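Predict structure. Chain length: 115.
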Amino acid sequence: MFPGMAGANPRKMKQMMKQMGISLDELEDVREVVIRMGDRELVFPDAVVTVMNAQGTTLYQVVGTPEERSLGPEIDEEDLQLVIEKTGATREEAKEALESANGDLIEAIMKLGGE
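Prediction complete.
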């Protein structure tokens, strides 16, 4: 945790941290941690999460093996309604067409044979 402190007595380390105003706790019953980015997310199903509070700042440390999942395009409700209106498709059909067209309205409408 601190450079040059390898092999230090854990009890003494905890006491030193407390004197410096640092608390370190592990979150219990963590099921998974998800980090979402623009086009993908990292999911830690076996995460161990440690919370460190130091001088009014809270830090979260996540340790585990991430699984990467890609996210499809975010479908806007207005786009979905427009595709339904123009093609007469069901909500599910319109959503599938938009997803396969990466959110492109014209391509989704053409796929469904609309105007």
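Summary: The domain at 77-111 is CATH 1.10.8 (Helicase, Ruva Protein; domain 3).
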